[in-house]
Design a protein that fits this description.
It is a single chain. This protein is α/β, with parallel strands linked by helices. It has one domain: TIM Barrel. The protein has 4 helices and 6 strands. A 4-stranded parallel beta sheet has the order 3-4-5-6, with helices on one face. Strands 1-2 form a two-stranded antiparallel sheet. Helix 1 crosses helix 2 and helix 2 packs parallel to helix 3. The longest helix has 18 residues. It is globular and about 40 Å long. The chain starts with 13 loop residues before the first strand and ends in an 8-residue tail after the last helix.
């Protein structure tokens, strides 16, 4: 079996995110994580208010983040030091947390915005608000509808 060389094509390492093109083969890229949740295991809920979240997102951009990933539902696992894990958040609550943040970040930075969700309706709302990428921890197996299809997009980075 022939194994192709790792750098077979420079074009294949380009990730287009809205107006931004990241050359994934040129260097490592940084995704800044922005949890807009009261129960995040990473930041303890420090960015639940839209103002605090936007301020932090802009700081991430200023510090060199290549993508800002905005999430409104904790995915804290169950067990060990995490206890019962995170509770599921309904679609309306998740949208209320992330959409104002995504809209304001899109107006105030050119850094591409990703939405961290496993729900198609939340992903679609975030894409309409200006996000250009969907980060779905389920790999789109928990939601049956692909948000790119309902938006009429041919290709959407996931």
């Amino acid at each position: 079996m022939d194994i192709p060389p790792l750098s077979a094509s420079v074009e294949s390492s380009l990730l287009r995110l809205g107006k931004t093109v990241l050359n994934l083969g040129a260097r490592s890229h940084v995704m800044g994580i922005l949890n807009v949740t009261p129960d995040s295991f990473a930041d303890g809920g420090r960015y639940l208010s839209p103002d605090a979240a936007v301020e932090h997102g802009l700081r991430l951009a200023d510090e060199g983040a290549d993508i800002i990933d905005v999430g409104g539902e904790s995915t804290r696992p169950r067990g060990g030091v995490y206890g019962d894990g995170a509770s599921e958040v309904d679609v309306h609550q998740e949208c209320a947390r992330i959409l104002p943040v995504i809209e304001r970040l899109c107006r105030n930075t050119d850094v591409p915005i990703s939405v961290d969700t496993w729900k198609a309706s939340v992903a679609e709302a975030a894409l309409r608000a200006g996000a250009v990428m969907v980060n779905d921890i389920s790999g789109f197996i928990l939601t049956l509808i692909c948000p790119g299809l309902s938006l009429g997009l041919e290709r959407l980075p996931y």
